[in-house]
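Much of our argument rests on the idea that a fold can be written as discrete symbols. Part of our work consisted of pairing the sequence of a single chain with a tokenised description of its backbone. We regard such an encoding as a compact summary of how the chain folds. The amino acid sequence and the backbone structure tokens for this protein are reproduced below.
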Amino acid sequence: MQKREPNPIDVHVGVRIRTQRKLRGMTQVQLADQLGITFQQVQKYEKGTNRVGSSRLSRIAEVLGVQIPFFFEGDPSFKGNDFDPLSDADPVFGFVNTKDGLELNKAFVAIKNERVRRSIVKMIETVAKSSQAADPAD
């Protein structure tokens, strides 16, 4: 019997659930407890092996503090059938899934002063531009 591949959209939604859960500092067990399911079910949602129903997705969005459309941003159906949410096709989201990306985002969100956050973004953009100019390989 041949193993069925997860639907790319289910994988995409799962990656978005996992990333938001991690950004919130929640474990799979904590999310599962708030949803009234097992952590194994959360694992299956995050891997895309089980499809998330609409009422469950609504509850996940509520627990994670996001709107439902968040889970569909960057919809993989526009990228073809071989969508890989952790590939270089989406380097920003791929970075957010790394340890450094999560730590950077948590620290940035903790900065409450909007002017300070904006200054940090401008500084990073400047460093990135000068870095690209210095590296002719890019």
Observations:
- The CA atoms of residues 92 and 123 lie 18 Å apart.
